[in-house]
Design goal:
206 residues; alpha/beta; Ribosomal Protein L4, Chain: A; 2 domains; six-stranded mixed β-sheet; 33% helix; elongated
Length: 206
């Protein structure tokens, strides 16, 4: 698959061939869905917790006799039936992570890239850099190119000025190539790859 390379100013800068083994697969929704579920589950903190009846500081003495009151039978005031009592079956601190083999994750990334390529959502630029790291200038370039919702992936390191210029623009994400992931690819309309990112992806899946 051949794509034209452009610059942030909108000028042509040659062309590149996208490898079919990475960008030419028939997308499988089941693999992509499994990877997204794995990602979202893994990033949950799992620090939610409540106090059960053992954590409540109250007397455990039976509050009144078993019989003769005309009311319900009650013992400890720590039970969930009473205001201020412990909560029954509340959330506990735990990990939400689900298992997913590395090979499946790598394959899901390929299928996500292929799905984006099939939809025409991939753009290749020569480099991601902006003069003086100015947000106004970068926003102007993105508006001219029509990228209102995009994930920009650079090489091993994102230029500091470009990262600073992009961080305050809504719906624009910037990642180094090692941070590319299925969820971020799918949640943005355009996937913008630099030449360095493309070379790194080819080397990664070789």
């Amino acid at each position: 698959m051949e794509l034209k390379v452009t610059t942030l100013e909108g000028n042509e800068a040659g062309s590149v061939n996208l490898p079919e083994t990475i960008f030419g697969l028939e997308p499988r929704a089941d693999l992509i869905q499994r990877c997204v579920v794995w990602q979202l589950a893994k990033r949950r903190a799992g620090t939610h917790a409540v106090k059960n009846r053992a954590d409540i500081w109250r007397t455990g003495k039976k509050m009144y006799g078993q019989k003769g009151t005309g009311g319900a039978r009650h013992g400890s005031a720590r039970v969930p039936q009473f205001r201020g009592g412990g909560r029954a079956f509340g959330p506990v601190v735990r990990s939400h992570e689900v298992g997913l083999p590395k090979k499946v994750r790598a394959l899901a990334l390929k299928h996500a890239l292929s799905a984006k390529a099939k939809d025409g959502g991939i753009v290749v630029i020569d480099k991601a850099s902006v003069k003086d790291g100015k947000t106004k200038e970068l926003a102007s370039h993105l508006k001219k190119l029509g990228w209102a919702n995009a994930l920009i992936v650079d090489g091993a390191e994102v230029e500091a000025g470009f990262r600073l210029a992009a961080r305050n623009i809504p719906n624009i994400d910037v990642l180094p190539v090692q941070g590319i992931n299925v969820y971020d690819i799918l949640r943005r309309g355009k996937l913008v790859l630099t030449k360095a990112a493309l070379d790194a992806l080819e080397a990664r899946f070789k």
